[in-house]
């Protein structure tokens, strides 16, 4: 799970940077994207991605490698906060399921995704404790 969180978070942060150079567009979010950003979170239910988007995680890293990668992600997230907030809102890139997102939305998506998996982990831990 940690590899997945790190990889996907970096993908979202790549899009934050891409928005800086993206053309202006009036294109908007998909209905799912509108709902997600209105609520400010992914739904509490499990989300099944299409197989093409559901690559198996790399489970070869040791704990120290994951810790290093996690700290690098945190540093990058902090570094891109200003860019996410200062990039014009009409410069967007497209997410396959959520439609067109601006830099601030891509940046927020990192937190939404992490929170979604934190809830998932709590559900799994509770099920295992029974």
Word description of this protein:
The chain has helices at 2-19, 31-39, 63-86, 103-129, and strands at 92-95, 99-102. The protein is mostly helical. Strand 1 (92-95) and strand 2 form a beta hairpin. Helix 1 runs parallel beside helix 3 (63-86), helix 1 packs antiparallel against helix 4 and helix 3 packs antiparallel against helix 4 (103-129). The protein is globular, with a radius of gyration of 16 Å. The two termini are 22 Å apart. The mean pLDDT is 88.
Uncertain regions spanning at least 5 consecutive residues: none
Oligomer: single chain
Order the strands across the largest sheet as they lie in space: 1-2
What form results from the Cα inertia axes?
globular
Radius of gyration: 16 Å
């Amino acid at each position: 799970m940690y590899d997945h969180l790190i990889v996907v978070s970096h993908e979202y942060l790549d899009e934050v940077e891409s928005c800086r150079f993206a053309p202006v567009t009036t294109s908007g979010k998909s209905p799912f994207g509108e709902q997600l950003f209105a609520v400010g979170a992914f739904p509490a239910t499990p989300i099944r991605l299409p197989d093409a988007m559901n690559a198996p995680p790399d489970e070869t890293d040791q704990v120290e490698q994951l810790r290093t990668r996690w700290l690098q992600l945190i540093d990058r997230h902090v570094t891109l906060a200003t860019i996410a907030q200062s990039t014009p809102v009409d410069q967007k890139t497209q997410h396959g399921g959520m439609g067109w997102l601006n830099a601030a939305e891509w940046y927020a998506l990192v937190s939404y995704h992490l929170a979604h998996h934190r809830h998932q982990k709590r559900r799994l831990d509770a099920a295992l404790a029974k």
